[in-house]
Design goal:
Elements: H1 8-19, E1 22-25, H2 32-39, H3 46-64, E2 69-72, H4 78-87, E3 93-97, H5 100-109, H6 120-126, E4 136-140, H7 145-157
Parallel strand pairs: 1-2, 3-4
Helix pairs in contact: 1-7, 3-4
Length: 159
Amino acid sequence: MGTAGSGKSTLGELLADGLGATFLEGDSFHPKENVDHMAKGLPLTDEMRWPWLDRLGSAAAEVRETGPVVLACSALKRVYRDRLRDNLPGLVTVYPEAPKELVAERMGNRKGHFMPLSLLDSQFATLEVPGGDEDVLVVSARQTPPEMADEVLARLLGS
C-alpha cells in the first residue's frame, strides 16, 4: 500500500521473486476511465475505486488458489484495505513509508506513467496511515528497494 512513487511496485516485484509468488500490478486493473481521469490530473473518487479494488481482489484470490500472490495497490484508506482483506483473508499489507519530498522526486523522474505529479497532494490528503490496530508491516522507503525487500522477507519468514 502507499502513494504513487512510494516504491510499492518495485518492492512488490522483489517480494514476489523472493517468495516465488505471482506479482499483480494494481494499476493494470484500473478501467480505462480511471486511467484517463487520473491522466487529466483528477483524483479518483471512492465510487471509482470500489470496482477497481474488487477486480484486483478477485484476480488475486484466483491466483492465490494455485500459489502465493503479491499485489501492488495504493489502498490509501483503511476502508480500501479492509475491502481487499474481505476478498483475501490473511492478507499481509506492507507499507513503504515515504515522505512527500522523496515521492515527488521519484515521480518527477518517472517516464511513461499515467499518474501526474499534480496528483501528489491529493494522494497524501487521501492517505490514511495505518494505525497500530491494523496488521501492517511498515518499512522506510528511504532504503533501497532490495533493503526494503530483505527487511520484509526477514519479518515475514521470521529470520
